[in-house]
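Sat 14:20. Reprocessing the chain from the morning session after the first attempt stalled halfway. Input below, unchanged.
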Amino acid sequence: MYRIETERADLFDVNMMIAMQITVAGKATEPELTEAFRDAVGTFEILNCKIVIDPNGGAFYDSSDGSMNRLSFGDFELESLLRQQERIRFRLEEGEFLRCFVCLSGRDEMKMCFLMHHLGGDGKSLCYFIEAFLRRLNREKCEYRKAVFLNGKTLPIHSKLPFWASLLVKHYNRKWRKERRTFGFEDMSISYEKFWENHYTTVRNEVTPNDALQKKLTQCRANKIGFTSYAIAEMIRDIPSVQDVGLAVDGRQDGNRTMSNQATGISVKYRYDSRKTLLQNAAAIDRLMKNKLRTPKYRYFILHFMSAFDPTLVDAVNLEFAGYFHSKTSAQLARLLGYAQNTKDLSITNLTRLDIPAKYGKYTLTDLIFVPPVISYGKNIVGMVTIGDHLNTTYHHYLENYADEKTDPDSQTANLHENA
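Finished this time. Tokens:
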């Protein structure tokens, strides 16, 4: 069993679904795809686990007798599929971390959408699963990959919490003792139902073609700045106020290619200076980002910080956001952490250039759209990935009053049939 520590905030969050839609040139049959999916699932330890919560509120990955990850076939459109599936909670206690939907209606290509709970892995993890899936589809062998977890023992020694943060955590943990309660999967189910009664998300993807992308990359290289910094400057240049930008960061220290949530995060605050050029603003943002990325106490702060709280208090904060639970302590901490209020203005995950092969025998990966989850402490979620000769940038955010919408997203997605 593996104790859930740094990723505890993902357990009771009502939207921890990562999505990737891929396009593959070449056709396979339903039985071939089903077998490849089953084999790829067997490759990763974490996909053969389930989540258990003990009576004291401790949560763990435990081995599962049978995988509940599933593959379905049928026509779909990305946004309507996400709207349908985001309201259906993953049965983590039964080992469900991954759902795959396959559309075979294209003449010489296949469209697939992979939906994964964040406790099954991060954005890179899902890329590595897709690689294993396509390799198995091409009858290639895949090595078994044990899960790797970030915790206090595996994080860099120089990344420990500063004194002020430790005092803050102790203060809230002490207050929580008087109100403490544990939560289970029934609480999770009810909170999902309550939250998604009047919420849904919208997704928009923008494609930057090769010519425009190369022009931007050339400018970044000439000025020695990262492309993510340049993209942030573009996004905020018409906004006069200070922007609080959160950035998901790969926490892998050994470059492993297994599945688990090994993401950490940093944030930078910046007001776009209209007296300066776009590149000058991008350079200023780049300096702020690199200062935090090169300093372990900043790079891994959020992992140490969240895992230092009583785990049930972290659960309570998520359930406050969902409108299911309320206490004085969890409400105060939710406000402090920016859950629903004072959220990050932008939350960006840039997977950069896809680091998996494009060619798998007669199958070629031609496109990938990456949609990060709308986390509780973010309002404008951006996912970026470069594949082939273009960049895909998705924008994902909540809309409320779902019941007032005339279009039921379920009706936009054709019936899907499952294969085990």
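Residues 278-293 form the longest helix (16 residues).
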